[in-house]
Design brief:
Elements (H helix, E strand, L loop, with lengths): L7 H20 L3 H6 L2 H4 L3 H16 L1 H11 L8 H14 L4 H11 L5 H14 L6 H4 L2 H11 L1 H9 L7 E5 L5 H6 L3 E4 L2 E4 L16 E3 L6 H4 L8 E4 L6 H8 L3 E6 L2 H14 L4 E4 L11 E7 L13 H5 L4 H17 L2 E11 L8 H10 L3 E3 L20 E3 L11 E8 L4
Parallel strand pairs: 5-6, 5-8, 6-7, 8-9
Antiparallel strand pairs: 1-3, 1-4, 2-3, 9-12, 10-12, 11-12
Helix pairs in contact: 1-4, 1-7, 4-6, 5-6, 6-7, 6-8, 7-8, 10-11
The structure holds S-adenosylmethionine.
């Protein structure tokens, strides 16, 4: 991790990159992903890229406790980029194996001259105190924690928040769930139903089986919506919001004749690339799924809708700090419109799975309740206990899944998943 410390300039290059990434991550939704695929970042050495990313992720996972410690020391808000530099300096010294003197020296060197005295003094003072407590109350933005308390109760909300600081493993989905040799080849734990879990880090494209398309990266919770459709070979399946494509790949791998839509042509290219790598096929269209001019109906329809993504904080802690209360009703409107369009594509007797990687009830439970009230031709098709490898703790009395990130050992992404069935023709 300390390759970046070998030469003074190299050390500063990696830290400057970390500052750019952190500013992008906290600037706007999607900013971190964009910065991670920008030429400026990609042109760095693999060591510098790895270090910069690790520092930023460690910072974002403990942003609440770090800011609390800074607020206690700063008499007034210093001009930028002082706070971001201090955040990164503390994260390096407390949670990466950077020696405190190196964290201080490099952080001070990156600060504009007039801020160096302040950065030096604040950093040294907090380093003397030791790492701030990572209590769940501090890890989540207060407004989101208040929402989770209201939705899930005190104990569950704190268990969710506690997961923010925990670095997740990487999960893969096998193209062929019976490919038992793959688990051994990548030194993974087999989670059942074709999901693997690994602690390996680095560029997944260099891992065994990648080039042959024997697996793709997919959280074990994200693998559930497509599995719950139980498509049979030759059935038709429509994936309305397909990119980057993990669920499309699952449907195609199960033998369905798949049509995949996504509004974003750029993101849809990731689906076609993944299909090519895995040797699977699907018809793809870059289109607004709510206005797709095609009259076909399908045996199985999947709507993995755009959402606040608050359930994905284990790998994307920045989502928590960019989400705004107004995003929830705005996205809920989009979801309701797409759910109505999805319903119109389901054959009589066919099934529809609705999923969101959000922890917010307006995007999950409330969507499905509203949908059922407005669509009497559909009924809930209850998920069974443990079905498709779903955690027992996630099955709600209504028969849908409300997956919280602590519901399985080692964690998984937060999701809401409901299966609906259209009545058979009379
Ligand atoms: C949660 S992601 C889907 C993830 C995907 N199902 C997977 O497993 O990889 C939501 C997707 O919806 C797409 N999207 C948003 N609005 C849309 C619309 N009106 N029509 C079609 N796609 C849309 C976004 O571009 C984004 O790729």
């Amino acid at each position: 991790m300390n390759a970046a410390d070998s030469a003074p300039n190299a050390a500063l290059v990696a830290r400057q990159a970390a500052l750019t990434l952190l500013q992008a991550a906290l600037g706007r939704r999607g900013g971190l992903d964009e910065a991670l695929s920008a030429g400026r970042y990609l042109s760095l050495s693999p060591q510098d890229r790895g270090f910069a990313r690790a520092v930023v992720m460690a910072t974002l996972r403990r942003l609440g406790p770090i800011d609390r410690a800074l607020d206690a020391r700063l008499k007034r808000e210093p001009p930028p980029p002082a706070r971001d530099l201090l955040r990164l300096g503390l994260a390096q010294a407390f949670w990466l194996d950077t020696p405190a003197f190196a964290a201080v020296d490099t952080t001070v060197s990156l600060a504009p001259k007039p801020l160096r005295g302040l950065v030096n003094a604040v950093l040294r003072a907090i380093l003397r105190e030791g790492p701030p407590a990572e209590s769940p109350e501090l890890l989540a933005p207060p407004w989101l924690l208040a929402r989770w308390r209201a939705a899930f109760g005190e104990g569950e909300a704190l268990a969710v928040a506690a997961r923010i600081a925990v670095e997740p493993a990487t999960d893969l989905t096998l193209r062929d769930p019976a490919d038992a040799a793959m688990a051994e080849a990548v030194e993974a734990e087999a989670l059942g139903e074709g999901s693997l879990r690994l602690v390996r880090r680095g560029d997944v494209a260099t891992w065994p089986g990648y080039d042959e398309g024997r697996w793709w990266v997919q959280d074990r919770a994200a693998a559930l919506p497509a599995r719950l459709l139980h498509v049979r070979p030759g059935e038709t399946a429509l994936d309305l919001c397909a990119a980057p494509g993990g669920k499309t790949l699952q449907l195609a791998a199960a033998g369905a004749v798949v049509t995949a839509l996504d509004q974003s042509a750029g993101r849809l290219r990731r689906v076609t690339a993944a299909l090519a790598r895995t040797g699977l096929s699907a018809e793809t269209h870059a289109v607004d799924a709510g206005a797709w001019p095609d009259a076909r109906e399908f045996d199985a329809v999947l709507l993995d809708a755009p959402c606040t993504s608050t359930g994905t904080f284990r790998r994307h802690p920045d989502v928590l700090w960019n989400a705004r209360p107004g995003d929830i009703p705005a996205l809920a409107q989009v979801q309701a419109r797409l759910l109505s369009s999805a319903a119109a594509r389901v054959k009589a007797g066919g099934r529809l799975v609705y999923s969101v990687c959000s922890l917010e009830p307006e995007e999950g439970e409330a969507q499905v309740r509203g949908f059922l009230a407005a669509h009497p031709g559909f009924a809930l098709d209850m998920v069974e206990a443990g079905e498709a490898g779903s955690p027992a703790a996630s099955l709600a009395g209504e028969g849908w899944l409300r997956i919280l990130p602590h519901h399985a050992e080692g964690g998984l992404d937060g999701f809401f998943i409901a299966r609906l069935r259209r009545a058979k023709a009379q």
